[in-house]
Amino acid sequence: MSGWLSALFDTLDPFCGPAGIFTWLGQGSLIACGDAGWGDEIAFGVKVTITLALATLPVGLVIGFLIALAAQSEERLLRLAAGIYTTIFRGLPELLTLFIVYYGAQILLQTVLSTFGYDGRVEINAFVAGMVALAVVFSSYSSEVLLSAFRAIPRGQYEAGDALGLRRWRTMFLIVLPQLIRIALPGLTNLWLILLKDTSYVSVIGLADIIRQTGIAARVSREAFFFYTIACLLYLVLAMISSFGLGFIERWAKRSGVSR
């Protein structure tokens, strides 16, 4: 079964499959697939970039949602903690946040394990470190978008849930959350495009994304302009596909809101 699925994925591969763009346009060039060019490596980098962005998105949204809840809490300490969190991670450069997570987590784990007598070298997975760092940054911005959406929802919505005998968490998920998503969607769309570009930072910790793969190809072939132009085109294509898909979702959300 796994072999059948692997063959199917290879056939449908938009880059190096039978109908892939590198297969058709890159024949005999530097982006040809196989040993003749760098098409396979660049295609792998695109997959890593997309996978990293998609893995980061739900984590960042959940953390951002919790931070937004804390920011409008009646508890002063929760509001203070949320404010400190967003101030720190919106103020720090994304690259610096990545370094802190990647190297800081290694130092922390090394210290903890050394107390138990383990003196071996500890290395953090670059993909996990990149996902955590980007999720932290994404959540600090998305929390502000979600907080604004929360404030745009009338308090009467909560009171309506109470009048229907709903518990507060059921009111949140059945009444408030659908409206929250519709209101926050334009802002979250912009943040997704920023997240997609920010994945390029993970190349500095060794993750084989678009930037790293095209960078290696540029150094080996000494065709830097060519390969970095390919990287630009790939990011633009991903952004256009994302804009089209998110625009469709936004129009669907508006129609569903009107139908209610």
UniProtKB/TrEMBL annotation:
<keyword id="KW-1003">Cell membrane</keyword>
<dbReference type="Pfam" id="PF00528">
    <property type="entry name" value="BPD_transp_1"/>
</dbReference>
<keyword id="KW-0812">Transmembrane</keyword>
<feature type="transmembrane region" description="Helical">
    <location>
        <begin position="48"/>
        <end position="70"/>
    </location>
</feature>
<keyword id="KW-0813">Transport</keyword>
<dbReference type="InterPro" id="IPR010065">
    <property type="entry name" value="AA_ABC_transptr_permease_3TM"/>
</dbReference>
<feature type="transmembrane region" description="Helical">
    <location>
        <begin position="124"/>
        <end position="150"/>
    </location>
</feature>
<comment type="similarity">
    <text>Belongs to the binding-protein-dependent transport system permease family. HisMQ subfamily.</text>
</comment>
<keyword id="KW-1133">Transmembrane helix</keyword>
<protein>
    <submittedName>
        <fullName>Polar amino acid transport system permease protein</fullName>
    </submittedName>
</protein>
<dbReference type="InterPro" id="IPR000515">
    <property type="entry name" value="MetI-like"/>
</dbReference>
<feature type="transmembrane region" description="Helical">
    <location>
        <begin position="171"/>
        <end position="195"/>
    </location>
</feature>
<dbReference type="GO" id="GO:0043190">
    <property type="term" value="C:ATP-binding cassette (ABC) transporter complex"/>
</dbReference>
<feature type="transmembrane region" description="Helical">
    <location>
        <begin position="82"/>
        <end position="104"/>
    </location>
</feature>
<feature type="domain" description="ABC transmembrane type-1">
    <location>
        <begin position="46"/>
        <end position="246"/>
    </location>
</feature>
<keyword id="KW-0997">Cell inner membrane</keyword>
<keyword id="KW-0472">Membrane</keyword>
<dbReference type="InterPro" id="IPR051613">
    <property type="entry name" value="ABC_transp_permease_HisMQ"/>
</dbReference>
<dbReference type="InterPro" id="IPR035906">
    <property type="entry name" value="MetI-like_sf"/>
</dbReference>
<dbReference type="GO" id="GO:0022857">
    <property type="term" value="F:transmembrane transporter activity"/>
</dbReference>
<feature type="transmembrane region" description="Helical">
    <location>
        <begin position="225"/>
        <end position="249"/>
    </location>
</feature>
